């Protein structure tokens, strides 16, 4: 869950810098996916650490600890948007051809048919 940070609106000309901010209350776990060379990057952050996600970098963030965790994010746009990958891949109308997805994900077509039949809420 992300919470918009309104304090940045008080900073003169902040939005003219094409920078925005958000607070992220992290769930358990951290998995990152790199589209370059199909490389997985996994990083466990501790208090005070900084991590930068490059543009268009598919990523997943979660809290692996047993106490609440908070992340403060700085974004490169006033409205950077969010795209949930599963919604885009399996929830399109008209859908992506199931045989193409089955080949891409290396699963049986029945798995893709099942996923495409689910109700995908727009992100």
How would you describe this protein?
The chain is of the alpha+beta class and 123 residues long. It folds into two domains: 1-81, no CATH class; 83-123. The chain has three helices and six strands. It has helices at 85-90, 98-105, 109-117, and strands at residues 2-4, 20-26, 29-34, 39-41, 59-62, 69-75. The chain has a three-stranded antiparallel beta sheet with strand order 1-2-6, with no helix packed on it. A hairpin with a 4-residue loop joins strand 3 and strand 4. Its main location: secreted. Mn(2+) binds at residue 59. Keywords: Apoplast, Manganese, Metal-binding, Secreted.
Helix coverage percent: 10-25%
Averaging pLDDT over every residue, what do you get? 72
**Number of strand segments:** 6
Task: Give the assembly state of these chains.
Answer: single chain
Distance between the termini: 12 Å
User: How many whole angstroms does the radius of gyration measure?
Assistant: 18 Å
The number of distinct helices, counting runs of at least 4 residues, comes to: 3
What percent strand?
15-25%
- Helix and strand composition category: alpha+beta
InterPro entries: Cupin_1, Germin, RmlC-like_jellyroll, RmlC_Cupin_sf
Organism: Cinnamomum micranthum f. kanehirae
GO molecular function, one term: manganese ion binding
Binding site for Mn(2+): 59
